[in-house]
Amino acid sequence: MESENPVVTSRQNRFVAQLCALEDKKARENTHLFRFDGVKLLCEAVRHGVEIAYAAVCEKQADEVWNKLWAVGKMRPSEIGCKFVYVSESVFKKISEEKAPEGIICAAKHIDKFHKSVKIYNKDVYAPDKSEKILLLDSVRDPSNVGAAIRSAAAFGADRIIMGGGCADIYNPKTIRASMGTLFGMKIDRVSGMKDAVLFLRNSGRKVYAAALGHAAKKLGHDALEKDACVIIGNEGHGLSDEVISACTGCVYIPMSEGVESLNASVAAAVIMWEFFGKYN
């Protein structure tokens, strides 16, 4: 596919400048756009109905990009339905966040149909189906951990993720990269009050367990868990607040070798989700 316009050789070009700006959360919120690198993520986005606003393509890698687009997603450039801006190799390397860039960076529109902001107990009715497998994340601040947790949730059959206000932005490029595109099809609700979210679930008849050490905490792999139970994972360094833990049905913990205090948040989330969701797939 040949470029209809001259190749961009300056970072001052408006499309290039905006792609760079989308690394910042405020810019993403103001424009309702987010960015991601690579062909695989593009294919996953299109497959899930994400609207691509435009894409920057490295002129030198263009043929390689189109060939891979077909190999991975059986798609032609014309099927993407967006404007392609061809840029020089030097410009592309400066704006890409990848160590080994694949030659394409996309700007896409926010996915409001799945990723909603809801407020418990107000006019916005929050009513997940009682059969849904639900993961809650509270104050997980590292975008890579959030993305990896979303990927694990998709792998183990979770239907919905509820994220507290202190979590990393789901549209952070690192979140999207770590999710490997699973974010595009996951139902995600963002709430300001995690305690209220937990209480709402419990009032609807669900059991909600905190991943924390506590009185009568259940040991994963040894104690039976209810099939419809939900689980909440906390901050990487400080875990869950006492307020949130007290709102839960109880606690669960991962048994580990002596001398090891904790696991990375995304690894812990994967282990816990296997016990809560994976066994019942």
List the helices and strands and how they pair.
Blueprint: H1 14-21, H2 25-31, E1 33-37, H3 39-47, E2 52-58, H4 62-73, E3 83-87, H5 89-95, E4 104-109, E5 115-117, E6 134-137, H6 143-155, E7 160-164, H7 173-179, E8 187-191, H8 194-203, E9 208-211, E10 218-219, E11 230-233, H9 242-247, E12 250-253, H10 265-276
Parallel strand pairs: 2-3, 5-8, 6-7, 6-11, 7-8, 9-11, 9-12, 10-12
Antiparallel strand pairs: 1-4, 2-4
Task: Describe this entry's structure for a reader.
With 281 residues, the protein is α/β, with parallel strands linked by helices. It folds into two domains: 14-109, 2-Layer Sandwich (60s Ribosomal Protein L30, Chain: A), CATH 3.30.1330.30; 115-280, SPOUT methyltransferase, trefoil knot domain (Alpha/beta knot), CATH 3.40.1280.10. It is built from ten helices and twelve strands. The strands form two sheets. An eight-stranded parallel β-sheet has the order 5-8-7-6-11-9-12-10, with helices on both faces. It has a four-stranded mixed β-sheet with strand order 1-4-2-3, with helices on both faces. Strand 2 (52-58), helix 4 (62-73) and strand 3 form a beta-alpha-beta unit. The relative contact order is 0.14. The mean pLDDT is 87.
Give a short overview.
By secondary structure, the protein is of the alpha/beta class. The protein folds into two domains: 14-109, 2-Layer Sandwich (60s Ribosomal Protein L30, Chain: A), CATH 3.30.1330; 115-280, SPOUT methyltransferase, trefoil knot domain (Alpha/beta knot, 3-Layer(aba) Sandwich).
